[in-house]
């Protein structure tokens, strides 16, 4: 039967590093990068006899993530050892959570477009647990050896497990994007896919409309871009449909996505929970929250995207489409919020952000993670343009320099002679000389041929060369000509 007749069943396991200063069970720096093995200590490099101490901030961040994804929080939570032997994990077990994770039963709404249709769906979150990240292996092909960098070992990680509620590549992609956004707004993770701070495993099976139970699934590990998530789901649906069509069985296994070939390949047949021989970690204190703890953490959650969207489309009267564009990028939304404090003109700022900033972001001229301009100076520029202190096209020129090198728009405009002075004395002087020098045209105007106004206006604008706005020149010229007739 055609691929479209199978119902895809998809669940995600999303790993996201938490933005704490130190690691989850020791005081080593949790920052990304650093010289290899420079951010390690006896605890995170797994030396015997060391004692891990849990980082309270990491626990609170995980709970915040739970609230951001609509979860209930377990007041009593336990850490377990997940045993596996692989050189990226020097202890030979990972401290994780099995039966009593910090957060359970959430929901994340997603909005997306598929086949030109607007869709909305609520995706259930099964659980969020806190664990430690593993190190990185560097495979040196030249010398045929593998080296381990343990800087990432012990960085706090949350694993978000969804119910198998997704059914298309677009839904999977949208959910990961939405969860990233919520975690960024909650302030618990920066979700930089290219740095691996959010990674995703995709579980997929197919069923026929008449089936009563889910089919056998494959798990594709460690996807680190939205595009590869989309392509993996797309590929895997086709692969499984082909096998099922031929009457073959799907093997439950772990697969890897090859970005270059655009296909998935077998990594290992799937292990079950009992293969990991989980047991409660005797070194880690259990978590016991009071109601006060939980309400304090919940109240510390900053303004979330849905709240901003409501504010933008409501109080600020921004059209929904534009409001969504801004809200869906936390950096832009923060920039907008800060700019509003300096120049309270939401519409104008939104137009500038979408028309100029995003355009230059797409051209690769602006890195919104570390822009060269501040919200305050951007707001100042938009105000200068709105109040016609500079022309719209000069404002774009000024912003080009601000985006590239920074600087105050007023200084740049002055340096470049772009400030429109609107000095009435000067305008009148120019008008007088234009009138004196164009007797014929002026007489035509006086005799009722108002068409020549445009010509006279043009002469004045040329002579003033941007020193006054068209509006002011027009007003003054009209006044003057009327006084002559
Ligand atoms: P495990 O413990 O083996 O990792 P889980 O029950 O924790 O399995 O599920 C892992 C992920 O796989 C979840 O996101 C879940 O929604 C998804 N999943 C479970 N069964 C199926 C299935 N038959 N098809 C697709 N996804 C599934
Ligand atoms: Mg799992
Ligand atoms: Zn350490």
Account of the protein in words:
The chain is 39% helix and 21% strand. The protein has a nine-stranded mixed beta sheet with strand order 2-6-7-10-1-11-12-13-14. Strands 5-4-15 form a three-stranded antiparallel beta sheet, with no helix packed on it. The chain starts with 6 loop residues before the first strand and ends with a helix. The radius of gyration is 31 Å and the shape is elongated. With 485 residues, the chain is an alpha+beta fold. The model has no long low-confidence stretch (mean pLDDT 93). The protein is built from 15 helices and 16 strands. The protein folds into three domains: 3-288, no CATH class; 303-415, no CATH class; 424-484, Arc Repressor Mutant, subunit A (Orthogonal Bundle). Bound molecules: adenosine-5'-diphosphate, magnesium ion and zinc ion. Residues 9-13, 161-164, 203-205, 214, 217, 273 line the site of adenosine-5'-diphosphate.
Helix content: 25-40%
Shape: elongated
Distance between the termini: 86 Å
Structural class: alpha+beta
Major β-sheet annotation: 9 strands, mixed
Overall pLDDT score: 93
Number of helices: 15
The distinct ligands, each listed once, are:
adenosine-5'-diphosphate, magnesium ion, zinc ion
Total tally of structural domains? 3
